[in-house]
Amino acid sequence: LAEIAARPDVAATPPRSYVAAGEVGPSLLALIEREAVDVLVMTTRRRRHLARWVLGSVADYLLQQAPAPVLLVRHQED
Length: 78
Fold this sequence. Notes:
By secondary structure, this protein is α+β, with helices and mostly antiparallel strands. It is built from four helices and two strands, in the order ααβααβ.
């Protein structure tokens, strides 16, 4: 993402990076709201149904709760 964000044709305003602490979903949601994020781009990883049910999904949570568009990019395994 850093390489893409550095390209001048991607955004007129350079993207910013943040570090948040706490439970992942709510922490990201608070950051998105506080910083008035235009779009959230995040990668996903494959998780089996049982693990996803037990652990939940940050991507699903943010898709449902975020006030900004969410772009999910599937993680490519080598």
